[in-house]
Write the structure tokens for this entry.
Amino acid sequence: MSGREEIEKKIIEVLRGRELTFEELVKEVGWEGDRRGLRSVLADMVRRGVVGKKPDYDKRRLLFYLKGEG
């Protein structure tokens, strides 16, 4: 399994039944260092329709969630 696939599995596991901002997702996944790798994987998952995103006007952030769950 590639590193990218492992990151995707972690993202899916963390988002199951939840909606998180990118910063919250970073903490939950336990990502350290440069965030571009995580952002790239997340963006690819959004393009493929695995993860959705919607605005949270109170937090002024985007919320990420698993599609098909909400």
Observations:
- Residues 3-66 form a domain with the Arc Repressor Mutant, subunit A fold (CATH 1.10.10.10).
